C-alpha cells in the first residue's frame, strides 16, 4: 500500500500543474490568444487584428501567458513573435477545439 501513497503524491503534483495551466486559460482573451497561437507563430500586430484586442489588453494578457511559461517569444527587429511553448498545451487546445468549436463538432463522425 505504500506505493499508492507515492502514486497519490505524483497525481497531486500533476493535478497542481494542470490546475495552474487551466487557471491561466480560464480567461477568454488568453484562451483566444492561445487558440490563435496554436495555429502557428504570430506577432503582436497580427494577434491584435485577428482578435480585435486593443494594445493594453493584449500586452497584459500576453504578459500573463509569458509569466506562466505558456508562450515563447522571438524578436525580429522591432517585432515580437509569440508561439506556444508547451506541446501538452497544444494537445489541450486541440481537445477544447474538438469539444467546443462548432465546425469541429460538425466534422466529428
UniProtKB/TrEMBL annotation:
Lineage summary: Bacteria, Pseudomonadati, Pseudomonadota, Betaproteobacteria, Candidatus Accumulibacter
Highest taxon above the source species: Bacteria
InterPro entries per the UniProt record, alphabetical: ArsR-like_HTH, HTH_ArsR_DNA-bd_dom, Metal_resp_trans_reg, WH-like_DNA-bd_sf, WH_DNA-bd_sf
Pfam family, one: HTH_5
Gene Ontology MF terms: DNA binding; DNA-binding transcription factor activity
Gene: bigR_2
Keyword terms: DNA-binding, Transcription, Transcription regulation
Residues annotated as domain HTH arsR-type: 8-104
Protein name as annotated: Biofilm growth-associated repressor
Amino acid at each position: 500500500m505504500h506505493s499508492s501513497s507515492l502514486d497519490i503524491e505524483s497525481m497531486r503534483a500533476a493535478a497542481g500543474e494542470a490546475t495552474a495551466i487551466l487557471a491561466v486559460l480560464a480567461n477568454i482573451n488568453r484562451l483566444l490568444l492561445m487558440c490563435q497561437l496554436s495555429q502557428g507563430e504570430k506577432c503582436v500586430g497580427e494577434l491584435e487584428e485577428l482578435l480585435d484586442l486593443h494594445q493594453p489588453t493584449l500586452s497584459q494578457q500576453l504578459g500573463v501567458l509569458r509569466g506562466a511559461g505558456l508562450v515563447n517569444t522571438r524578436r525580429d527587429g522591432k517585432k515580437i513573435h509569440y508561439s506556444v511553448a508547451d506541446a501538452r498545451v497544444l494537445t489541450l487546445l486541440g481537445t477544447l477545439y474538438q469539444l467546443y468549436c462548432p465546425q469541429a463538432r460538425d466534422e466529428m463522425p
